[in-house]
Structures are given as C-alpha cells and as structure tokens.
Specification:
This protein has ten helices and four strands; from the N terminus they run βαβαββαααααααα. The chain binds glutathione (GSH). Glutathione binds next to helix 1 and helix 3.
Length: 242
C-alpha cells in the first residue's frame, strides 16, 4: 500500500516533510488538507490524526503525526543518506539540539509574525497594535541572533559541511515571516549565505516549488473571504491576543 502524506504547504512542518520526501525520492500520494478551509477538523481527517494538525502520514495501517517524527521514520525506513540524521553520536546530538530548541524559538516567533502581519488583520479586520508588533519583531530577531551565533557560527550548515534535518527544519520556519513580507535576510549576510546554500543543496526548483504558496501568501490572503477564517478566531483570541 502506498504512503499517503497529508499536507498543506502553507504550513512550515509540511514543507520540511514534503522537501525531505521529494529530495530523497520517497514516493507518496499527496493528500491536501486545506487549513484555510478547516479540513483538519473534518471527521475523515480525525481518523488520520486526532491532533488535527498537519503534517501527518499514513503508511499502510500506520498513521503518524509530527513532522520530526515523520522525517525520522522515513529516514530509517528508506535508509536516506547519513548526512540528514548522522549516525555519528555528536553530530546527531547537534541535530537533536536544534530540533529541540527551535519549537519555542524560531518556530513560535516566525509563525507569530505570519499571524500578526497577515492572518489576524484579515480574520479580525484590525491591525496588531504597534507595541505588540514591535515586541514580536524583537523576539524573532533575538531568535535569529541565537541561530546565527550559537547554531550556525562559521559553519556552512548547522552540523558542519553537510545539510541535515536541522537545516531543513530551520529554513522552512525562517521562510514563514518572509511570506508575510518581512525580509529577515536584510542586514544578515551570514543567514542569507546559509539560506542560499540550503536552497542550492535542496535544489532551487524543489525549494521554490515548496515555498511557492507561502511566497504568494500576501496576494492569496488579500482575496480571501474573512468569513472563511471564522474557525481560526478562537485560536487567535486565545493564543495571540490574550
Ligand atoms: N509540532 C507539529 C506542529 C504542527 C502544526 O502546528 N501544524 C499547524 C500548521 S503549521 C496546523 O496544522 N494547524 C492547524 C490548526 O491549528 O488548526 C509538527 O512539527 O508537525
């Protein structure tokens, strides 16, 4: 039975899983779960993932959620090249270190920028107050500083000379605020050079294809009917505006 992947490429973790599978020639059936349409709450998707988030996969009878768990499963199952998740103890620990840190740093702050600049103004019809926005930009910049100083240092990639899952997870998150119109690479030559290396390593065509939706997000959101975003309102009020 073929591998099914439940994805929406607006979502950063979906892009990492998608790129990882494509780059490693892992065959799968693409099942689009449109977050804007609220498909994650459908009865059918509840059978795939009770977490009601994307990505998720179904491999035969086996359903799995969480992007990192999915990529590690695929790496082991498909024997992907070692550099993605090195067998070397300390290199692997470096990948794990980044994957453990990023959730509460780059991911949360980059994602917040997308909500603050694009989704919340559309869904609620109001701009985010300046002070709140300034604080969010400051948080994201602090995370990017740590990314450059602690995780990248003077290495081509996070673990050294080769790309790993850590770089893949990092780039998809760092592109999220870019999709909201924030040029995170401005005045950050080290970050920009790293991004160019990661894009070249993944392959420019695949990288651009996976990021197409997010890079056109400003246009897409402009023409979106705010009524379609009703299901996001409780989350917005609870997590972002409380
Ligand atoms: N830790 C999870 C995060 C998954 C996640 O938060 N997905 C978001 C999109 S980026 C989602 O499905 N949100 C739907 C919702 O909250 O309704 C992973 O890495 O897979």
């Amino acid at each position: 039975m073929s591998l099914e992947m439940y994805l929406d490429l607006f979502s950063q973790p979906c892009r990492s899983v998608y790129i990882f599978a494509q780059k490693n020639d892992i065959q799968f059936d693409y099942k689009k779960i449109s977050l804007f349409e609220g498909y994650q709450y459908s009865e059918e998707y509840g059978k795939i993932s009770l977490l009601r988030k994307v990505p998720a996969i179904k491999d035969g009878d086996f359903c799995l959620a969480e992007s990192v768990a999915i990529m590690l499963y695929l790496a082991e199952k498909c024997h992907t090249p070692d550099h993605w998740y090195p067998a070397d103890l300390q290199k692997r620990a470096r990948v794990n270190e980044y994957l453990s840190w990023q959730h509460s740093a780059i991911r949360i702050h980059g994602s917040k920028m997308f909500w603050f600049k694009l989704l919340i103004p559309k869904a609620l019809g109001v701009e985010i107050p300046k002070e709140k926005m300034d604080n969010a930009v400051e948080d994201l910049n602090a995370s990017l500083n740590l990314f450059e100083e602690k995780f990248l240092q003077d290495r081509p990639f996070i673990v050294g000379d080769q790309i790993s899952l850590a770089d893949l997870v990092a780039i998809v998150e760092i592109m999220q605020p870019v999709g909201a119109g924030m040029d995170v690479f401005e005045n950050r030559p080290k970050l920009k050079a790293w991004k160019d290396r990661v894009r070249a390593e993944i392959g420019a065509e695949l990288f651009d294809e996976a990021h197409q939706a997010i890079l056109y997000a400003q246009e897409a959101v402009k023409t979106m009917d705010p009524k379609k975003m009703e299901h996001f309102k409780p989350k917005i009020l609870r997590y972002f505006l409380s």
